[in-house]
Give the backbone structure.
Amino acid sequence: MGLKKGSAYSQSNEEEVIQRSLAALPAKTRFCVDIAAGDGITMSNTYSLFKSGWGGLAVEGDGRLFRKLVDRYAKFPRAQFAKTMVTPDTVVPLLKSHSVPRDFDFLSLDIDGYDHFVLQEILGAYRPFLICAEVNEKIPPPLKFTVKYDPAYVWREDHFYGQSLAMLEELARDKRYALIALEYNNAFLVPEEHSAPFPSLSVAEAYRKGYLDKPDRLQRMPWNRDMEALQSLAPTEGLKFVARYFERDAGRYICRL
């Protein structure tokens, strides 16, 4: 799909996963949506797509980053831009206002907050062929965790954000999507009807292969060490750990088995 193997734009190995997955899918619009596109290059899952001639919508709420994004993508004639903070209430109207195709090829979602509910709304109106969604990787299956939607929510740059892989997988099953890979903190989903070319992974297998068994995970993400105890706890004890750890945020999240 015009991606350079081993490209350095994405955070880890996401671009190779994207390349392989798109090659196996009947994607055809060459249109992507990047929600929380940042400066357009740093840890970008879509820069290589735009660079290879794709069209798409790049969304960023931070004014400083948005200016850099627009400047860097000015050379891409099919790129569209939106400076806004995406919420579950605004995301579908936003995509419709930019004429996003219903079956667009690729969605990248990373808003460090109530991602679960934004994705839920997107999948009620759209059916992208490939999704890359950030997860809160330190919260293992079977714990189903998500920050609740709150218009006043602002990420404090701590562990209180996003959704766990198990919560994402539950939403995926409800919307008839299959989990095909995890790359540290980015999960990949495809529609069930197009999942045949991909290995069938349980949420536990995906978590083990994509995060837990990565030998360098705590070197890459040293800030996760203070929640590492979760990896050795029984699920019921894990629920108690989360309740203690996020005590200041009681009532602002869901965590269940």
User: Anything to note?
Assistant: Residues 14-256 form a domain with the Rossmann fold fold (CATH 3.40.50.150). The mean pLDDT is 95. The first helix runs from residue 14 to 24. The chain is about 30% helix and 15% strand.
